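Shipment paperwork, digital attachment
Item: protein structure file
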Amino acid sequence: MRKNWIIALTILIICLISIPAFGNAASPYERPDSNVVLFDDDTGIVLREEWVKFTIDENNWNSRVDVIYDIENEDRDDHHLDIMFIAPYFDYDTGEVYVDRFEAVVDGNEITEFEIKEEDDIPVNWNARYTMEIMDPVDDRMLERRLSDGGPASKGGKVEGIQFSIDIEKGQRKTLEISYKAEEGYYSFDDVVNDVYTHLYYLTPAEFWNGDPVVNLEIEFPNGGYEVHSSIDLDQVSDTIYSARLEGLPDEEWTFSYVDTTGLFYGTNRRSIHNVITWGIITATVLAGIYVRKRKKWKGNLVLLLILPELFLFRPGYGILYLVYFLFAPVTALVLFIILVMMALRQYNKRKRDRRL
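Attachment content:
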């Protein structure tokens, strides 16, 4: 009887444990004869160096992007400069930029007046250059479908411009800092175990500045459990930081994808392979339990109970997963309750018979 209670307690413990960006800036002007907005490729403003840093948050959402431009007015007589920052779909209310979503600072002075330019107002002499191939960094494979949601790929490549003005005297050098919260795209289909997130940053508008700038790229993750795939080669400088330093602007935009590897016990993000390995482990447990049970029945039963937590290594489709979490757990708890009641009744009847004797 004691062994039965040990088994029942083990089941209860197992059940309790088992249930569980985009953007770049240039100077726009409007052509008088057609009212077509163009980027000015002869501003007289030199871009010396650019820094772009993505800081990924713990939930993989609302990642922060910090951009720094080191600019100098070499030969522009007019000190007033209009700047348009090319950005993705920001999901702002029409005509308003939220302070907590976008910030611009020049030499420590915050810019407070912005104007949102819709896609039709983006300069016609600039076109984004990128191939939005979603790569799974864990298995180094191209994913077959489009993004599930978020990002320009799921919105038909929609971009916006945020326009503002700064003053920079001839011969003056200034630091322009831009910060915003980026909207990630993510891939969440049944062929992956963990979702794949992706970002796009528009580097090519900076071609309209004068000069050939140095470009610094950096991604910082919340911990060391991430894999990343980038269209531009990055060096891993620490457990959480990847970076690159480029002598000159690339010909295309910067895209990168990343995966949180938590729960990828087998080193793969392919759901099919993950599940095959899990079934193999479950099969081995069943065989081991049957073998041990022939020698010691209760020990064999304990080995077979390992199947319960192993089932939660299995990664079914989202519909089945919903049923597992919301139906399987209550059913298991009900079955356990019935077993415990039956065992208690059995013990009660046994004691009752013993008293009669």
